[in-house]
Design brief:
Blueprint lengths: L6 E7 L6 H9 L6 E7 L6 H6 L6 E4 L5 H8 L7 E6 L3 E2 L3 H11 L3 E12 L4 E6 L9 H6 L13 E2 L1 H4 L15 H11 L1 E14 L17 H24 L12 H9 L5 H10 L5 H19 L2
Parallel strand pairs: 1-2, 1-4, 2-3, 6-9
Antiparallel strand pairs: 4-8, 5-9, 6-7, 6-8
Helix pairs in contact: 7-8, 8-9, 9-10, 10-11
Length: 312
């Protein structure tokens, strides 16, 4: 990698005109300057085109008919010319040294096809919420652990992700019918089972929780979420694995995974009254991204939350 390689910043947006300038400006204000910015407007019906027009030739804009996040990635990723591809949701923002630090980190970890870092949640007004996430980071070759645990891990959010474009293009096209949002999980899962991952324990991005997030809305409360959200989380895991099997089969890689080993899926089914306690305990204790002590603490958290679903 060159000392100042070109980096592609890919922003996907749909009806986020009110947040989009914060995202774009956070890229323009990076300490690292050799960046191309591609914005895929996924058929917005608000004033997104006017916002994008304001930036002129400082960004490259692609407007498509609305097809969801997977569609936006399928359109935008092939256009990337950079040696590194970094994703950003239109309602999030990068801290000023993010690209500089990730370029340095990528040079230190040349075998990693995917790199990521921590993020800080903020509210609609920019006030910090809680501590930086995720607390557990996945680093190195995670393939065997991923398969053994039914794909259990804290999949990084869009705005912290950096990829080697030549590797992630192998995952395209992402199936679009199940991924109007959350398509980033197919990309991260693909890397988890095909390559090395590198995690930088620094906070370099802000995720905005504003009540209308396409994915996070209804999920910002770590403890209680509605039964509808829990059902949705079960389906998301199932669709992720179904889509990943399609992508890997197309790439010539066998993929045989046991969904009953997936800790998040089994936990939600237990809360919904559709999975037995022993399966939940087994899934919690075998989840590889936590220490044995943390796995036991997590199981107690699962048991504590079960009471709330009995009472509602």
């Amino acid at each position: 990698m060159q000392s100042q390689p070109l980096v592609t910043a890919l922003i996907n947006t749909y009806n986020y005109a009110r947040f989009l300038p914060f995202a774009i400006n956070s890229v323009l204000n990076q300490t690292y300057k050799n960046i191309e910015i591609i914005v895929v407007d996924d058929g917005s019906t608000d004033h997104t085109p006017e916002v994008l027009q304001h930036y002129g030739d400082r960004i490259r804009t692609v407007r498509t008919t609305n097809g969801g996040q997977a569609h936006a990635f399928n359109v935008g990723i092939p256009l990337a010319r950079g040696e590194l591809l970094m994703l950003l949701d239109a309602d999030d923002a990068w801290l000023p040294t993010k690209v500089e630090r990730m370029v340095e980190f990528a040079a230190e970890r040349p075998n990693a096809a995917m790199l990521y870092h921590r993020f800080q949640n903020i509210d609609a007004k920019g006030k910090e919420i809680g501590v930086p996430q995720p607390m557990a980071l996945t680093d190195g070759d995670y393939r065997r652990k991923y398969m053994r645990s039914g794909g259990s891990w804290w999949s990084p959010i869009t705005s912290v992700l950096a990829f080697r474009p030549e590797h992630i293009r192998r995952a395209l096209p992402i199936p679009t019918y199940a991924h109007r949002e959350g398509a980033d999980t197919v990309l991260t899962d693909f890397c988890a089972v095909t390559a090395e991952i590198a995690a930088l324990p620094e906070t370099l991005a802000l995720r905005r929780l504003h009540g209308t997030n396409l994915y996070a809305n209804g999920r910002d409360d770590r403890t209680y979420r509605s039964r509808e959200i829990r059902e949705s989380d079960v389906r998301r895991v199932e669709w992720r694995m179904f889509s990943l099997r399609q992508v890997l089969t197309r790439a010539g890689t066998a993929f045989d995974i046991k969904l009953d080993h997936n800790e998040w899926r089994i936990t939600n089914l237990y809360w919904l009254g559709r999975a037995p306690l022993y399966k939940t305990l087994w899934a919690s204790l075998r989840c590889p991204e936590h220490s044995l002590r943390d796995r036991w603490q997590r199981f107690k958290w699962v048991m504590h939350n079960k009471r709330m679903y009995r009472e509602r």
